[in-house]
Amino acid sequence: MCLAIPARVAELRANDIAIVDLGGVKKDISLALVEDVQVGDYVIVHVGYALTRLDPEEAEKTLALMAEAGVLS
Amino acid sequence: MSASLEGRIDIRHAGGQWEIRSTRPQLAQRLLAGRSPAEAAELAGTLFSLCGQAQRAAARAACAAALGQPLPDLNREVLAELAREHAWRLVLDWPRELGKNVGQNPNPAALPRLMQIGPQPDALGSWLEEHLLGEPPETWLARDWAGLQAWISAGSPPIATLFQGLAEDQGEGSPFLPPLSALTAPQAAALAQHALDTPEFCARPEWQGVPAETGAVARQAGHPLVRAWIEQRGRGIGARQLARLVELAQLPQRLRPSNPAADLIRAWTLEDNTGLAGVETSRGLLLHGVRIETGRISQYRIIAPTEWNFHPAGPLARALQALPPGPDLELRARLAAQALDPCVAYGIEIDDA
Question: Does the structural domain A6-68 have CATH classification 2.30.30.140?
Answer without folding.
Answer: yes
